[in-house]
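User: I need a structural model of Cytosine/purines uracil thiamine allantoin permease from Mycolicibacterium mageritense for a docking pre-check later this week. Nothing fancy, just the predicted structure tokens so I can convert them on my end. Input:
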Amino acid sequence: MSLSSYFHGPATSLDDQIESYATTRVPDSQRWRRPAILLVLTGNVTAMFWFALGGQMGFLVGWPALLIPIAYMVIGATVVGALVMRIASQEGLSLPLLSRGLGFGARGSAIASFVYAVNYVFYFIFEGSIVSHGLSEIAGISIDSAGASVVFAVVALIALYYSWRGMHSMNILQRFGMPIFLVLFVIGMVMLANGYVLVGPGEWAVQDGVTATAMWQALSLANGQVVFQALIATDYGRFVKRSVSYAGTAGVMLVELLMISVVMVLGVFLGFTMISHFDGTRGEQELAATDPGLIFAVVMGVLGVIFAILTQVRINVMNLYSGSLALSNAWDVLSPKKIGRQWWMVLLVGLGVVLYPINVLQYTDKFLAVTGIMTNTWIFILLSDYFVCRKLLGLAPSSQIEYREGRVKDWNLCGMAALAAGLAVGALGVAGAYPMHFASFAAMLVGPIVYIPLAILTKGSQYGSTTQAADADDTADDNRTEVAEALE
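Assistant: Understood. Predicted structure tokens for Cytosine/purines uracil thiamine allantoin permease:
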């Protein structure tokens, strides 16, 4: 077997490539090797978002305190991602589909799926805005003009093209995109070194010193990514072979996150090096110095804009793909009329173009706090259901988890009550009842604390009356598939 085969997915029909098993299990015959999965995930590693997030953390706590929130994110996301990715690989299901059986019910999962999709609308606009800001610097196109929206739309259509056939076309993009990204980045660093005074870690200091509040704010930014990175990885991890262990899925997550941490530190380096070159108040300078599209355009000129466009396309194919999976699941349980996954990507592009003028970069900290509350509560309920209620207490099967309508309840009242409780506690923090930077931590703890006792009290009745029968049906289906593949 050639080395290149480790970075390719199995052959499949065009229809299956486009639909990408958005509302069904991924069959064993369509599983990918881990290097191929990791290659696709490199689009996330090199997202401009990580330069910006690293810069924001750096301006909050400086060096070396910066390493604390980064370490928390790497360790936390590796652990959560390893657990969730292995569940997805064993079941061949996306997280929205897993949510139907793991704590929420068919219609209840639609709520979680909608929340999940909202995240991708934000990240899609975020990355697109960075490109527009770079073009604004080079071509004088105002970032809130119709011209900037047109630029955003054109680049978004390129991302749509490369996400149309799901994993297969994304794999091709990342294969040729990664080397180009590395070459342009090295050129940019050389141009930065030749034209600017570089500011190293010894000078990454905050003006008023590191306070407990600033550290918690940085940790809150990291906490929003602890679960969200696991969610992204799992959308692709459902294609991982069933034989991969927890150590194997942890390895995929750790490699990805270590690369991300390097990009974040580079974001701090860029921020402190460039902040003195922007005008305005300290807050305005920091906002500009955490805008990588603007920075690379200033340092590299037209090459910087090309670099930003390439980087944005590489991550936005992932934003469109994962967002379309979430919306496909939500629609699947809300309407009998099926809409293909690809058309949900078209909708996401449309929403991005309409909402682009908001300039979401200035709201990053608030958005990450709110979405951290929602996604963290959701996933910790799901994990508590799988590992405590199913594996430890035996309230329902822990394999061949049911997801089909009619086999699971429309609403799992335990999960919905726990989700409501977690969101309510988090909302109190956002409203100012207690510091907002504690909100995502509080919400993700409250969810499981409420869910587990309710599942025990209801004795697993909220899963659905035909769970065991469905388990047997799916096992029989898998056996027939294995026999058919052996005969081929």
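Before docking, keep this in mind: The chain has 18 helices and no strands.
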